[in-house]
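Weekly modeling sync, notes
Attendees: AB, CL, MP (scribe)

Item 1: holo prediction request
CL wants a bound-state model with zinc ion before deciding which constructs to order. AB pointed out that an apo prediction alone won't tell us much about the pocket. Agreed to run with the ligand included and paste results into these notes for async review.

Input as submitted:
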Amino acid sequence: MSTFNKEILRTVRQARGKSQSQLAADARVSQAAVSKLEAGLITDPSDEVVDKLAAAVDFPKSIFFESDRSFGLPISLHGNAMYRRKASTGNRALEKLEADLNIRLMHIRRLLAAADIEAQLLLPALDPDEYDGDIELIAEMVRRTWGLPNGPLHNLTDHIERAGIVVIECDMSSIGVDGLTIRTLGAPPCIFIDSNAPGDRQRFTLAHELGHLVMHSVPSSTMEEEANQFASALLMPRRDIRPYLLDRITIQKLAALKPIWRVSMASLLMRCQSIGLVQPSQAQYLWRQMSAMGYRRAEPDSIAVAREPTKVLKEIVNLHLQELGYTAGELAKSLHMHPEELRLLYGVEDQEKPVRRLRSVS
Ligand SMILES: [Zn+2]
């Protein structure tokens, strides 16, 4: 017999950005009831209360009876520096993000119950301490492990997915988070990235989060700096990019290199600095110029880098619709969400019959 899951009530409430009193008002139940349900003091709410709560949070009521274990609470996550800064303010947007992530993790666990992800590339574990803090070398070892050619790295997302990591695009703009990585038992490593960031930023974030997965099995005080160094070295290996940076570094030069390396002008300038290929006074001048031109907020559209597509999650969703014969409604039901939300999150259109592809007989 399934029991009402108090953790899930809190998670879905926070995912909708509601306080306990707002939920109580929207559901037309007493705030005491919501509070006691979440505290576990009431464990067996009436059908009427469950129906009202489900309607108020816009989830099917089945979600309240999902078991704790498959829901995977609590999550342990680390974000980037910006995330930690925002975390200290402890606002509702942060609660909402954590709740959203938990719900997405539940989807991933459910979806993966029917599909194994077979990693085609090894995800190495390389402890910076064992390499004397040589992050450049660690990045190079990842490139070698994955058999990447020298020069610009054009399909980072594809490589990360082939290493068995799930990349999930999420709207994280409200809280200013670029990305974060979650490792939980019973699920592959998951990198969540902001769906609004331009391609160069998406790629740097992915490389940064990959750095955490490769280097940081336990948190450390230097991990953010190391992850940034890793991202920079992975996307712009010193030996490969050096010949491009030998002339005088100017704004025009940075703008010309951006589409080639598919990294931001700012990342290129930082790289020039870390390799020592720009005089400090010239670097300072360039940063001031970039600020004056508004490039520190947004680099020019004319040299925008396209986002790299993520594929794995879409393939797993399609597997359910095509090979496993789920209708969109059935898939939504199994993920405890309404079809409209399935469409928004995974681009699945609600339709009566599953799409069946013809499969060749070999
Ligand atoms: Zn980080």
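Recorded for review: The chain is about 50% helix and 5% strand.
Action items: CL to compare against the apo run; MP to circulate these notes.
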